[in-house]
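Form 7-S
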Amino acid sequence: MRLLRWRIHLHLSRRFWIGALGLVVVLFFLVNLASLVWNRARPRLIGDPLFACPRVFLWAWERPENLDFIDPRQLGLAVLAKTILLEGRKVIVRPRLQPLQAPPQTSAIAVVRIETARAEPVPEQSREVAAEIAQLAETPGLAAIQIDFDATKSERPFYRLLLQDVRRRVPASVKLSITALASWCIYDDWISELPVDEAVPMLFRMGVDREGVVRYLRSGNDFRPKICRYSVGVSTDEPLPRLPSGRRIYLFNPRPWTAQSLREILEAVRTWQ
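Output:
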């Protein structure tokens, strides 16, 4: 009788643990499914202006790039189209000179890099610069224009004026993006009211701010301005901080892109999304 009771107890125990294990597996599956659905739906739900674009963009800087190997259903390209140098009162424009190959269906963002030399820019220059940037909106199939300008505090009024002028000139169907120092998206928010659709927090080449930014993100904090919560910019050659999930990822590579380097970084990207 005692042996029978022990066998019954053992049988019930096994059924309990098998049932419990099955429940854990089901819950794990449901949690991951919910996370996947949320991250896919998140851009539209939070009003991301670029929700229809791929979730990963590769920056293609001023060098020859052959990107015929990318899958345009999964990846877009943010291509340096012009570099504008403000030197005194002169506006010097350098168009892209290096060849770029990519599948014809690839979603594209035209990037404009702005640099200043010696003197601070003056308001009169903003009109000429805005006209140069707005010309890019005529590119067929362009998803957005992105401006890359590390404006100092004294250059912020000029930058604000420039963005207002660009927004007036560019059709609403062409979204306006800017790159942003991480500090602008955390403790030095001067960009919330700028007339742009997204600001991409640049989480590389952060200099003295790096330790504080990494600590801030590791604590589970998010960027404060809403326009900073749609995307992030990272580089393949720097240790990656903890990133908020569900963001569009802009990837910078200091070397030419290859299928191997892309494959390696995309493995990491999947853990963030």
